[in-house]
Amino acid sequence: MNKLNILIITYYWPPSGGSGVQRWMFFAKYLKQFGHNPIILTVDPKYASYNLIDNSLIDQVKDIEAHKTASFEILKLYSIFKSGNKTRAIPQSYIPTQSLFDKIALFIRLNFFIPDSRIGWNYFAFKKAKKLIEENNINCVITTGPPHSSHLIGKKIYNKFKLKWIVDLRDPWAELFYLKNKFQFNYVKKLNLKFELDVLNSADAILTTVGNRYKTILKDKLSNTKKIYKIYNGYDKIAYDKIEEIKPDSYNIVFTGILSKNHNYQLFLEVLSLLKDKYKDLNMIFTFAGKIDKKIKNLFSEKIQLIDNGYVTHEKAIKIIKSSHLLINFNYLNTEDTDMVSGKLIEYLASGSPIINFSNSAQESNIIMQNSRKSFNADSNDLMKVMGFIKKEYDDWLDGNYKKEIPKNIESLSREKLTDNLIDLIKNLVV
Q1: CA-based R_g, the chain, Å
Q2: Any idea where the domains of the chain sit in the sequence?
Q3: Taking Cα atoms as reference points, which of 376, 321, 380, 378 lies closest to residue 352?
Q4: Sign of the CA dihedral running 72, 76, 80, 85
Q5: Which of 38, 141, 183, 346 is deepest in the core (most CB within 10 A)?
């Protein structure tokens, strides 16, 4: 079988921004370059409830066949009531609980929209999927979540057409961190778990971006545990190498992504306080690119000169990463059981800068960071370790001895190589 026709069902697609879109955007890009035919089924941006927009990504997929449908988006109603605008208050991943309105909205979302708030897309997506399957010789169907409601579309397709089906779990489902300690009726929890079990046990293969710890959880839910595969999010080497590195005049600590009260940032605040006390003329900056909670931004501004770029294009984010002396990653709290790996961690590694990953449990991240001699995970007990490391790196920089070190085997984590792995998996399923 030379050419694969692959139906990829993904809610997030350019011009959607953020990390959720990039995994299958790049898989599709390289599937096409390798001679295969990815067919994308996604939501029309006119109807979508995207939190972030990155129009620069459109060029990445201009040659990819994409079909877009209508959707009923409950989050747009939330945004209208919250801000008077259909998109201004769309939450990134979860509804914050800062006000009584937010608490009521979260209660409604968790108990009446199962498994998630994008369930209103399913009717339109399934209708279009049937037509695409009937008109094309589809070899394999892939659904990716979150939103995990996309997998319910895949289940309906599987029931009707019995096509080979791959379920991609970018994040855990029932174990998703922001569901912890949130009120749900027992029957809702049971229904969500039933949906998950039906999907996992029907699928021909399950992809995850995390490893052994989450795999252990999945094993308790599956009748066939051999169908679990791990394919990381990678970095686009060709585009990455073309992006220019800027050499800042100050020691540049960089964080990209989302930073909220649900992230593990407290230890780093303590470290910055110690550094501020030790160095009276601290020539150090903390550069952000992404979305940062205003209260947290103020906390960091008291400790260090802060440069907040806001949300930027993916290309600019890479330029900021490459221009770093030290990269910081804050994991979500309450992810210890599933050991989630940030999608940007590999892009961090490709820069050659040292990385400190703040997390109370990061076994999988540790595996990835072994590629970098100076990168490590830091938990709440590692105050002096982090302080000592940054002090040494900063002193080396002051003395002109700072040097980046790109991991030797980083190309094994390129988007091209990881797409090769995906193709091998699909061929093994459909042959």
Answers
A1: 22
A2: 5-234+414-430, 237-398
A3: 321
A4: negative
A5: 141
Within a 10 A sphere around the Cβ of 178, how many other Cβ atoms?
17
CA distance 180 to 183: 9
Residue 374 and residue 357: Cα distance in Å, rounded?
11
Domain 237-398 is of which CATH architecture?
Answer: 3-Layer(aba) Sandwich (3.40)
Q: What does the alpha-carbon distance between residue 102 and residue 397 come to, in Å, rounded to a whole number?
A: 46
Cβ–Cβ under 8 Å, residues 251 and 397: yes
Q: What pLDDT does 96 receive? A: 62
Token output for 126: 């399934």
CATH superfamily ID and name for 5-234+414-430: Glycogen Phosphorylase B; (3.40.50.2000)
- Tell me which residue has tokens 């009726």: 185
Looking at residues 14-20, what average pLDDT do you find?
A: 89
Give bridge partners of residue 177 from the DSSP assignment: none
| pLDDT tens track for 100-151 | 877 777 778 888 889 999 999 999 999 999 999 999 999 999 999 999 999 9
